[in-house]
Specification:
alpha/beta; seven-stranded parallel β-sheet; 32 strands; nucleotide-binding; GHMP_kinase_N_dom
């Protein structure tokens, strides 16, 4: 439901109402918008009791009325920030636990008693979860007013902090489900806990003074350019310098600490300065994105130079709205901290913000709240929030929705459900368009080397390259707005020089999964979705630099030096920046390439650009491992259609495509296997994710419609297994974001390596004891072979070299279920895994983590043998059973998830349903894939139309239960080695010269 601007008026009510208005403890932005709603309620003659942790002046400076009551209570803590730009995800969850979860019962009792005592007619929450539950328990209606909810924000944190925090997120979502409906503000995030929604205009604080009056009070003339620095506190250790501002500029600093020393061209504003007035008097703003700053920038048409915050998931949605109305310029964090402000500020004042929408959301929201408190019913008869929620606390969160889509805010969210099944990454492409697209880009490009092999996604990518010069010529562009990333890409290449294009697919983990790091046989299928990378090398003097990179180089006064510039498509709905650049000399530490540890820290400085480690890290690995020195500048465009966080190796496809493109552009002859091994080093040592090598190996060495069979000791490809024509594999995305760098994957890996060390110790002790007891002669029940077997197990290199029967006979009953890290280190010294570190204060599961790869290796061998056996229903049944066994073994390790378990159950229900039994079953088994803890489920079935229909039925059943429509992976494509590379040159027409 959308409430239009003209219905905004809040008429004075004949009935005096009491509102209890709860305000979240995260920053001032929520408090400032609450002020505007509360002001209109008070003007209508009502009492407003604000429950908040914010300072009183935020409210009293805008509302002077005896009907405003402030109760200082903090009932949630928001996101804990280490500084103005850095969110601590684990600390956020732990503080919420201490603030709102542990004292929950006493909080509820206190709030119910207080609500009853003030005789509240309506509870309003922005957006405190427990307030909704307290209202329900007190039999009072409740409404939320917000653009995001904490279950959505925290759901992403769970993936990094560990799933033991998931119950906290679940509780938050359940609390919200008691809310009657949501008053939703523009720039909103997905909020699955709310059953009914009313959209309102922006909530914006009114101006008290005009531009001229404010400037006069500050003593600043109209000819001075004024930027307001609005971070809500400055990044730690930051010192502002005079040269940060262009000549003729002044900077007004909000929220500066008393100890911060400012140069003459920076002015410290008082703590209680009324920000809207100062914004309206300024020429642009520099700060971080939040609802208050974005809404007021749009309302006052103030250009906003913003720096991304890491891990605050509200930001991408506000950023899209800001940029849609041509009001935003992104500054990378490095340039903020080093003072390269000039190109961004000059760009900002050239913008023409065009927001013309309503800005009276406070008045509109107050009208709705008054009507609700008087008895009007806005809610529908839909299922209750609790029924719809089920797994939706983590399932529906769409930061990774579909990269590369240009849909405006807020209309895109209403359309998103219909868009979910479309391809991602490059612009949409349909097979029926093959001929026209082919003729289009072949007119623009000459293929000097290689073959696009009829791949429609490659044709689409080449078409997008051909269109870049149209985007670059912004004066001729008829679009109201082009995505910044495509504008950056348009300025990336010198079309007089050759461009190299590579392609690397993601992979579906059919069998093997997390057993790869223990040496298992694995079977992996390259999927249809792939990453494309275009690379060009240029002499530094011919390299087209972005303005901020040029400013940085000019500041060094060294003349043209080799620079790396990267554009990555698909940043619109994520917290990562679309561009990255660095001087290639930054990779050097003296006369040697920097260490991997230093590189990891380098890319971690700015979380919004940490993604660049997957791409730029390939350069460092080539420098360190092959001794390569890069003397030319490098431009790279990355466009991936492999969805992130779904367990189908999006990172490996980016690494392999990037490594392959660099090799091609520089004439290096590197085998696909070595490309994969080098790419794994990028992920392990530069990114810092402890993955095995099967992902990169499949992406590099796989072939379409075949399973890559590899023994991971460390990486021996033993062949390609044809997928029989009567068998088909699908992937179904659970919607739960998977991260190979997450706490659960790493802890299970550590547990497996601990188990190996304990088994080696047991074998060594047993063999030594037996020989000692025999006094030099062999015991009757032990022959030479037995002792030799124990000696071999005492030096076990890979867990998968231990057979299941030996494990059960000798070690299963001795291995501990779990062990404290400190206890293990004291007894065994270390676990001998080069890519993980034991946390001595953490308890690790050992037995299940060690048992999984030992049995998984046996299952994969059986699976491989079955694929080549006689075609029969028993063959398919046995293949499916092996998948099920693998799935439950994952769960025993702690790597299961609600969503993937649900999908596996749906496959089982389909397999054992009456219809399937009466007509030849078509689906036979399913398992969680990759690193677990969410991601994608692999399904095996008969290759027929009925199977595809059942997969679609599962997709829609899952959506009905969770609210999330799964992405389905079907089909296969060649690996990077089979694709090779394209060397292309632009056919430049005379009018382009």
């Amino acid at each position: 439901m959308r409430i239009e601007e003209e219905s905004a008026a809040v008429s004075a009510s004949r009935r005096h109402l009491v509102f209890a208005y709860y305000v979240t403890g995260h920053g001032f932005g929520h408090a400032t918008r609450v002020v505007e709603v509360a002001r209109h309620l008070i003007l209508a003659g009502h009492d407003v009791h604000v429950v908040t942790g914010a300072p009183d002046f935020v409210f009293t400076s805008a509302i002077d009325s005896p009907r405003l009551f402030i109760r200082k209570v903090l009932l949630d803590c928001g996101a804990v920030q280490a500084d103005a730009l850095t969110v601590d995800r684990l600390a956020s969850l732990e503080k919420y636990l201490e603030t709102a979860v542990k004292p929950r019962e006493s909080i509820l009792a206190t709030e119910i008693e207080w609500l009853t005592s003030i005789k509240a007619d309506l509870v309003v929450s922005d957006v405190v979860p427990v307030a909704c539950r307290a209202a329900a328990d007190a039999s009072i209606r409740s409404v939320c007013v917000t653009n995001f909810s904490w279950d959505f924000i925290y759901a992403e944190y769970v993936m990094a902090a560990g799933n033991h925090h998931r119950s906290t997120v679940w509780q938050i979502a359940e609390d919200y489900s008691h809310c009657e409906f949501l008053i939703r503000l523009p720039g909103y995030c997905p909020m699955p806990a709310f059953r009914d929604v009313i959209d309102v205009p922006l909530v914006v604080r009114r101006l008290h003074k005009g531009r001229k009056e404010v400037r006069k009070e500050l003593g600043i003339s109209e000819d001075v350019k004024l930027v307001i620095l609005n971070f809500g506190g400055q990044p730690s250790g930051w010192k502002l310098r005079e040269e940060y501002l262009p000549p003729g500029w002044l900077c007004l600093v909000c929220g500066a600490s008393n100890t911060l020393e400012l140069p003459l061209n920076f002015i410290k504003l008082p703590k209680d300065a009324y920000t809207p007035d100062v914004m309206a008097a300024s020429d642009c703003m520099l700060g971080k994105i939040g609802y208050g700053t974005v809404s007021e920038a749009l309302a006052f048409k103030l250009p906003f130079v913003f720096v991304r915050r890491d891990y605050f998931n509200e930001e991408p949605f506000l950023r899209n709205m800001l940029e849609f109305y041509q009001c935003g310029v992104e500054m990378i964090r490095r340039d903020l901290l080093t003072g390269h402000w000039k190109p961004y500020l000059e760009r900002a004042i050239s913008l023409k913000p065009c927001y013309e929408g309503g800005i009276n959301g406070g008045e509109v929201a107050a009208h709705i709240l008054q009507e609700t408190a008087m008895g009007k019913n806005y809610a529908s008869d839909k299922f209750s929030g609790a029924r719809r929620l089920r797994d939706a606390i983590i399932l529906g969160y769409q930061l990774q929705r579909v990269p590369g889509r240009d849909i405006s805010i807020p209309e895109w969210y209403a359309n998103a459900e219909n868009e979910l099944s479309k391809s991602t990454g490059s612009p949409s492409f349909h097979r029926s368009e093959n001929v026209s697209v082919l003729s289009s880009w072949t007119e623009d490009f000459e293929i000097i080397h290689g073959d696009f092999q009829g791949l429609s996604d490659t044709m689409s990518f080449l078409k997008s390259l051909a269109d870049l010069d149209t985007i670059y010529d912004s004066e001729k562009s008829t679009e109201k707005r082009q995505m910044r990333e495509r504008k950056a890409a348009a300025a990336l290449f010198n079309w007089e020089e050759e461009v190299f294009v590579t392609r690397a697919p993601g992979r579906l983990d059919v069998m093997g999964g997390i057993a790869d790091y223990s040496g298992s046989l694995v079977l992996q299928m390259p999927i249809r979705e792939a990453c494309h990378v275009a690379v060009q090398r240029n002499h530094p003097s011919k390299h087209r630099l972005w303005k901020h990179a040029q400013a940085r180089q000019n500041a060094k006064g060294q003349g043209p030096t080799p620079v790396l510039q990267i554009v990555s498509y698909g940043s619109e709905l994520s917290n990562r920046g679309p561009t990255f650049d660095m001087d290639l000399s930054d990779f050097m530490d003296g006369d040697q390439p920097m260490s991997y540890d230093k590189a990891k820290k380098y890319f971690s400085q700015d979380p919004s650009q940490k993604w660049a480690a997957y791409v730029a890290g390939t350069i460092l690995v080539l420098m360190r491992e092959l001794g390569v020195r890069f003397e030319d500048s490098i431009s790279m465009l990355v466009s991936s259609a492999v969805p992130e966080g779904k367990g189908v190796s999006s990172s490996a496809s980016v690494e392999v495509a990037s490594m392959s493109a660099l090799a091609a552009a520089h004439g290096f002859s590197i085998s696909p296997k070595d490309i994969a091994l080098l790419s794994q080093k990028v992920e392990n040592h530069v990114v810092g994710a402890p993955c095995g090598v099967m992902d990169q190996m499949t992406s590099a060495c796989g072939e379409a419609n075949k399973l890559l069979a590899m023994v991971c000791q460390p990486a021996e490809v033993i062949g390609l297994v044809e997928i029989p024509t009567h068998i088909r594999f699908w992937g179904i995305d659970s919607g739960i974001r998977h991260s190979v760098g997450g706490a659960d994957y790493g802890s299970v890996r550590i547990g497996a390596f601990m188990g190996r060390e304990i088994i080696k110790s047991i074998a060594s002790t047993t063999s030594h004891s037996l020989v000692t007891i025999a006094n030099g002669s062999m015991p009757d029940d032990l022959d030479d072979d037995g002792v030799e077997l124990l000696k071999a197990e005492a030096s076990l290199d890979y867990l998968c070299n231990l057979s299941p029967h030996r494990f059960e006979a000798l070690y299963a009953n001795i291995l501990p279920d779990s062990i404290l890290g400190e206890t293990f280190v004291n007894k065994y010294a270390g676990h001998n895994d080069p890519v993980t570190v034991i946390d001595q204060n953490r308890t690790y599961g050992v037995k299940a983590a060690a048992k999984h790869p030992i049995y998984e290796n046996f299952r994969v061998k059986a699976f491989k043998a079955l694929l080549t056996s006689t075609t029969s229903d028993e063959q398919l049944t046995a293949l499916g059973e092996l998948l099920y066994q693998c799935h439950y073994s994952y769960s025993a390790c702690g790597l299961g998830s609600d969503g993937t378990d649900r999908l596996v159950r749906l496959v089982q229900e389909m397999q054992h349903g009456k219809l399937s039994k009466s007509e030849d079953g078509t689906l036979y088994g399913a398992k969680i894939t990759g690193g677990g803890s969410g991601g994608t489920v692999c399904v095996v079935g008969r290759n027929c139309l009925r199977s595809s229909q059942q997969i679609l039925e599962i997709q829609h059943r899952y959506k009905s239960a969770t609210g999330y429509l799964p992405f389905i992976f079907e089909g296969s494509s060649p690996g990077a080695g089979k694709f090779g590379y394209l060397r292309i040159r632009r056919r430049i027409s005379p009018n382009k010269l």
